[in-house]
Amino acid sequence: MAAQPQAPASCCIAGDQARALLKALADPIRLQVVEALAPGERCVCELTEQLGLAQSKLSFHLKVLKDAGLLSDRQQGRWTYYRLQGRALEQLRDWLDQLMLCRSS
Amino acid sequence: MAAQPQAPASCCIAGDQARALLKALADPIRLQVVEALAPGERCVCELTEQLGLAQSKLSFHLKVLKDAGLLSDRQQGRWTYYRLQGRALEQLRDWLDQLMLCRSS
DNA sequence: TACATTCATCAAGATTTCTTGATGTGTAAT
DNA sequence: ATTACACATCAAGAAATCTTGATGAATGTA
User: Fold this and answer.
1) pLDDT for position B29
2) Is residue B75 very low, low, confident or very high in pLDDT (cuts 50, 70, 90)?
3) Rounded to whole angstroms, what are the CA distances from B92 to A7, B11, B69?
4) In a designed cystine with B7, which of A34, A56, A102, B12 is the match (CB 3.0 to 4.6 A)?
5) Rounded to whole angstroms, how far apart are CA atoms A9 and A37?
């Protein structure tokens, strides 16, 4: 059967969006951040300590990840907590699945 | 002496390997190349025409993709045919799944 | 042999991305 | 009000990546 052009809601992100996610993840520091956040949210100061990064450096990468939709943040008092957005990872996986579908035809 | 990291064959690629794949895919031109190759193999001259790219430019990006393990090539006469390595895409998807698993625990 | 075709590779410049240190903003404690 | 803390943002330099045009290697054709 031919590949289906339509797909469920959570699927089907555009190539551009997929590329934004790929680009955000394709950096060693940002990947460490994502892995550090996989178990659950952390505040910036915990991350700087855990990863041994300069604060400004971490902040830069957190912004990249947030802009890509991979992280959300929440402010509580003086601390800012970052959290991994599983939705973005799912979308990327679905995009990969779609690509593999095209292939197997 | 290839000290093999302990991991099941298709799953469980290291973060470094995942990052190499992410980096290779995180470029608009390379993403176009990958999508162009999804239906099946193409020779370089077909790709240059289809994508409207300078030959040297395309060659550069093909090398990046091949080095990352996303493409394989096959020489036939004067032509070189490139083919998408579905295995690499699967590995990347599995790596994503693994990351999502860590998250939900 | 001589020549054209296909593709890879190289070096130099252009562009993008990252890092660093300084400064700014908001919050809370004294 | 002053100070300390947590974090974001900025500008300038450093580093990585991409592009371009030229050249080279391999294959096939006349």
Assistant:
1) 98
2) very high
3) 21, 9, 11
4) B12
5) 26
Q: Could you say which DSSP state residue B5 is in?
A: -
Task: Flag whether B33 is in a domain.
Answer: yes
CB contact residues (below 8 A), chain A span 29-48, against chain B: 31, 34-35, 38-39
How many domains, in total, are found in chain A? 1
Query: Pick from B15, B86, B99: which is nearest to A103 by CB?
Result: B86
Beta carbons of A90 and B84 less than 8 Å apart: no
**For chain A, which ranges sit under pLDDT 70?**
1-12, 105
Q: Is residue B53 part of a domain?
A: yes
Q: Tell me which residue of B71, B67, B63, B69 sits closest to B91, measured CA to CA.
A: B69
The pLDDT value given to residue B105: 63
What's the CA gap between A34 and A46, in Å, rounded? Answer: 14
Chain B residues within an 8 Å CB radius of A23? 22, 26-27
Each residue's pLDDT tens digit, A24-37: 999 999 999 999 99
SS3 B72: strand
One-letter amino acid identity for A18?
Answer: A
> pLDDT grade, residue B91 (50/70/90)?
very high
